[in-house]
Amino acid sequence: MDVPGPVSRRAAAAAATVLLRTARVPRQCWFLPTALLCAYGFFASLRPSEPFLTPYLLGPDKNLKEREEPKPARLLVLKVLWNDFLICYSSRPLLCWSVWWALSTCGYFQVVNYTQGLWEKVMPSRDAAIYNGGVEAVSTLLGAVAVFAVGYIKISWSTWGEMMLSLFSLLIAAAVYIMDTVGNIWVCYASYVVFRIIYMLLITIATFQIAANLSMERYALVFGVNTFIALALQTLLTLIVVDASGLGLEINTQFLIYAGYFALIAVVFLANGAVSIMKKYRKPEDPESSSQVTTS
């Protein structure tokens, strides 16, 4: 038995258009256009093959059942994911870059989402010509150029990576602070461009460093977890700082907090990086004991 296929939405829309064009009725008549729109909605939603689909899939030659049985493979998948999670984040370099990735992405989203409100306060759009869109375009273009220049940076990221993250996070904090405190729109624009360039440069390096410490099968897991943490932190920060149910702070105070947020990231990675470098370059007191440890 032939089962009629679903009616094409495009064909239904075309038919309705033709009828509307050919119908010679006064503009005040609402009945015919309403009827045609209702007919279009009916035929666009009509799926005559669906009643036959379920019995077909439940046929004896198909490996489907009407009641889905519990599958121990799901528990196995969850166990594998948890084991992969523990293995991935037990790597100190990967954990370090992932923490910065999540924290900085949270702060970046906050600044980008609310910078238009700051610019509107510095230079109201009703009083002068504004160039917000152009600044967004220029910052994206220059950020892309900076990303291409990453390949020419020769540095041992395994050794100096945390110190560089601290330095650039401090520059980001300074850019956000200047954008917040200087009441000049052009200074705000320039600070925002610097902010985005540094972030796009560092996020590219962080993504590469995370991927370098992972097998390809674990990319989705790690970047998914990092993104989830970043969005969760952003939601929490929004509820506390921006939302009326929280502190509901004024826009300048918000950006002052964002600058302090990036400064705190810089301090944390500065301390952590200093400890790592000291451990790496500290000479062993007893060469013989050191060689015995290496041999064992």
Automatic annotation (TrEMBL):
Belongs to the reduced folate carrier (RFC) transporter (TC 2.A.48) family. One of its GO terms (cellular component) is plasma membrane. This is Solute carrier family 19 member 2. Keywords: Membrane, Transmembrane, Transmembrane helix. The keyword Transmembrane helix applies. The chain crosses the membrane at residues 129-153, 165-187, 193-212, 219-242, 254-275. It is found in: Membrane. The keyword Membrane applies. It is a multi-pass membrane protein. One of its GO terms (molecular function) is thiamine transmembrane transporter activity. It comes from the Eukaryota. It comes from Callithrix jacchus. It holds the Pfam family Folate_carrier. Its main location: membrane.
